[in-house]
Amino acid sequence: MTKQEMTINISQVHQEMQNALSKRTDSESVKLIAVSKTFGVDMIEKAYEIGIRDFGENKVQELEEKYNYFSNKAEDIRWHLIGHLQTNKVKKVIGKVYLIHSLDSIKLAEEIDKQSQKAKCITNLLIQVNISSEDTKFGINPSDCIEFIKACSGFKNISLKGLMGIASNTKDTCVIREDFRKLKQIYEECKTLSTSNIDFQYISMGMSNDFETAIEEGSNMIRVGSKIFGKRNYNLI
Ligand SMILES: *Cc1c(COP(=O)(O)O)cnc(C)c1O
What we know:
This protein is of the alpha/beta class. The chain has nine helices and eight strands. Helix content is 39%, strand content 19%. Helix 2 (41-50) links the parallel strand 1 (31-35) and strand 2 (54-57).
């Protein structure tokens, strides 16, 4: 893909974001995360030149490699880990990621807290909530969110910045819209909690195929891959 083609893709995404936002009554803005998983550093470089600073990766090793490649070329890149994180890999990402979107267990929160304490930093996290009607995806149950946040309140080196969700894998927009509505409702409920490490700002929902619906339903952070970079050879979620 040429830089010119990517420029067109990105402006189209921005246009569609604007369209969706215009259907809302609040004046919040939406953050675009370019999901660069499986794509090479040349593609990230092009997106960076076009002005993108937030990149999403779903594999720890791939994130590390890209982080190292850009660490003294494009220091203002913000890396987002959007895929499942195993506790034994936590150490590798602490201090490198701007935001982890996939907190899905107390065990993981505990390890992130421990490693962040060692590294003398605070790690920003989104709780991944399982909003889809399928049972194959990661994430905690919607009804467990409040308890989960309370159970995390003792961890001093994490900051809970919000929620992330992936809608059902269907073409039925009604089903997708309901999934997003559910997440928005939980988000608003959780936001009222005042535990020590809660600082809700982000509701990360919407991908290439459904971000317009997500924005209409209140998303303020979308994760877009193929609509920017083109089709991936394989689909890793
Ligand atoms: C791959 C991925 C995306 C981006 O998917 P596209 O359909 O290419 O936009 C978003 N979120 C997560 C969690 C992903 O794994």
